[in-house]
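User: Hello, can you help with two protein structures?

Assistant: Certainly.
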Amino acid sequence: MGRTEGELLMRFSAAAVAGVLAVVGGLGAFAPLLVQGASLDAAEQDLVARINAFRDARSLPALAVSDTLTAAAKWMSSDMGARNYFAHTSLDGRSPTQRMFDAGYPAFGTWTGEDLAAGYTTTADVLNGWINSPAHYAVLVNPHYHAIGIGRGYTAGSTYGWYWTADFGGVVDVVRAVPVARAATAAQAAPSFVATAQVALPPDSGYHASWTAQSPDPTLLAGEPATLVVALMNTGSRGWYRGVAYQEANLGTNDPRDEERPELAADWLSANRLASTTTDYVGPGEVGWFEFTVRAPSTAGDYRLGVRGVVDGSTWLEDDGIFFIIHVRAPAPTGSISFVR
């Protein structure tokens, strides 16, 4: 009898998986893009596909599966079941954003959000539960999200049985994480519930700036150098420290951002970083000066150079549309001179 029940259970599980795979195949183009080999079971892949189809119908970008977000989501579903609770703050006191960060995702520098569900046994019911809740719907249609991690877990004897977690992020990361594996067993009847959605806005980095002054556009002969300056006022709450990682304000190329300009670079930090501040520290309310040299290309013409402040590793400063036009003129012709007496 025990073996027969086991066989029946295996047949039921296989049929359920086949049904899930059929749905994924039917969704076709919305099957999840797995980044760095993120490990999802068939139902988790199906939920990602359904979410992407839902977003596509509203002209929103598809979500790529992130290893780190997947690890965070799987851990959360497993922990809720094992410790029998249902809340966005885990019992160790961590918020969704903190858990994503702890799994390796750059959560404190971008948008993050989390949807939870419990008691549902199918992906269709999970998604419908979120769609019918205004707060969860807002997470699903947030255009700032580009990455997702899905985790589900079943714990016998827990209040809801099945627990589902969807973690969302604003960037597609490439860091690998080891997902928390949790074997799924047959679902048992349990009440269904959806937790209040959690959305975290990117924290203010404290780095801001506004344009103050700059040199006039130079007119040069081919190969001739010119020293230019840009002045930016520190309008943020944090100081700029030259030579200190993640706190040093530099002048970068802009429009397009980070474009390399070797044809103009002379004494630059790199082909897309012109200079750091001339002083070691620029405090809030103070003006920082950036001095750099351009060298005129060998071909005559007008060369546009867009620039913008950036604290590398933290954030770009405000885009005030700063640019120079480097006017390069051809040398005057040196024809022969004739004399007649």
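That covers the first. Now for the second protein you mentioned:
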Amino acid sequence: MDSKLPPTKTYFLRDEVVIHNNETSAWVIIHGVVIDITPLFTAGRKKATLKKTLQWLLAFAGQDLSLFFHNNELTPIERTNRNGERVPVFVPCLERNPATQCCWYRDPALVIGRITFHPCPVKIINTLTFHETEMIVCYEDTIGDVREKYLRYNDNAKQYEWRKDLSEGSEVGMLRMDKTLTENGYQVNLRSSVPVIWIFYILPPDTTNEADSLSGKYNPANGRSSSESEALRLTTLQ
């Protein structure tokens, strides 16, 4: 792989790249490197239509272009044209990033991450609502990254304690948010069971009992789904 490209700590699933397949958001993959080629279509646009080579490149947005490049390199495969000149098999490789004038496939400014080494299924169980959510995350994702992705299912995800076990409040079993699944002790491979993360809702400091809720000091319905609010009401009554 080209050593000129900067290292990255951002990883993507292939499914996350596929959806970036239009002129306003176009990504491609080359030997595991994720490249955002959107600037080629949006920078300094004055014409109503793209030129042919850019139209060709746009048709491949969201896809893996590795077959047009030498193994494990960001060097395009070439052929000899009728004039005896060496040209890329994939003609859009002739295009450059307007902002840097670098070939788009070698431009560090366009590299946004890498494809994950291994997609990992994970199950998150909300002990407040008893709702289970199954997700696919990147092998390299930290628990903090997983929590960020879980926000699409629960916008209060940061108000929970994330644990490997059911020992609520104990330091043992509490997940390190800056560590990955494997670094937190989970087995992540094809033979292992799906990792389970238990999350416990943390009451705000000024919420001690049902009387506080009823007196208006705290409204459990604020920012929560109806199932979370009802579960919290039952919890505080105990």
